[in-house]
Amino acid sequence: MHTAITIDALKVLDAIDRKGSFAGAAAALFRVPSAISYTVQKLEEDLNVSIFDRSGHKAVLTPAGRYLLDEGRSLLAAAENLAHTTRQVAQGWETRLRIGFNALLPAECLFPAIQDFLQLGVPVEVQIIEEVFAGAWDALQSRRVDLVVGADQLSKPAGSFATRKLGEIPFVFAVAPRHPLASTSAPLSDNEIARYTSVAAADTSRTLPPGHAGIFQRQHTLTVTNIDQKIAAQEAGLGVGWLPTPRVAEALAAGRLVAREVENPRSSVAVYLARHETDQGKALMWFWDRLTSDEGLTKWLQPSPV
Description:
CATH topology of the largest domain: D-Maltodextrin-Binding Protein, domain 2
Shape: elongated
Largest sheet: 5 strands, mixed
Order of helices and strands: HHHEEHEHEHEEEHEEHEHEEHH
Oligomer: single chain
Distance between the termini: 66 Å
Mean pLDDT: 90
Number of strands: 12
C-alpha cells in the first residue's frame, strides 16, 4: 500500500523545524532550497493537509504539521535504530538473546554479567527466563531460550548440546522453627518425613519428563510456582523439603528456617551452562565465556570436587 509519508519527507520536516527555515534545512541536508519546497508541497498534496502556515513572514507548522513531525520523529528514531541493528546483525550480533536460568539459582546471579554486557552498547535485547527442574533443558531443546544457566545432567535430553560445568549446588533439609520436625534431635528417617506435607516447585517442562526430587510417593504435596515461593512456604510452616543451601543461608542464620539432619542426605547437584552446539552468535558466545567464571555465579555455587 502506497503511503505519502516517507522517511525522507520526515527528515525534511525535522530539518526545517530544527534550522528554522527552508533554507537552513536545505543547507543541513546538502540540497537546494527548491528540493526542500517540493518535498513539503508534495507531502501536503498527498495528505491533503496544510503542514505549514505560510500567512506570515515565516513558515510555521500547523497543528497537523506539528503532530506529523512529533510522531514522525519516533519513526525516524526507529528507522535509525533499525539501520544500526541491521549493521550489528550483519556483524554477527543477535537482535535478541534469551537466557534461561535454573530456579535453584536466583535471577540476580546474572545481573553483574548483564550489566557489563549492556555497557557494550550493542542493540541486543536480553531476556531472562526462570525454569524449574527439567524445564531448563526443555526450554533449550525447544528453543524457547538460547542459553541455559544451571542446567543439570539428570534431565539432559538427546541432542547436540555444548556444556560447561559451573560448579555444584548443595542442599539442606529445612523446616520452620515451629514445625514438629524442628524439635527432634535424631536424624530424620524417610518415614518421619513422609508424614508431613512436602513443598514442591512445579516443573516447567512442557515435553520432557518432569522432575520430583525429594518427594515420597505417599507424601502430601503443596506445589508452588518457583523456588522463592517454596522457600516462603517452608518458612511459613506449610511444609518441608530440600532447599538449595546458598538460597536459604540468610534464613537459616536468622532462624526463619531450621536445618535438620536426615538419614538419607541429598547429594549436591552439578550445574552447567548449556547451548545448542551449532549456535555461535556474538552475544551468546560473550555470555558463554563470561559466565564460565563469573563472580555473580560463584557466590551461589560451591566448586566441583577434584
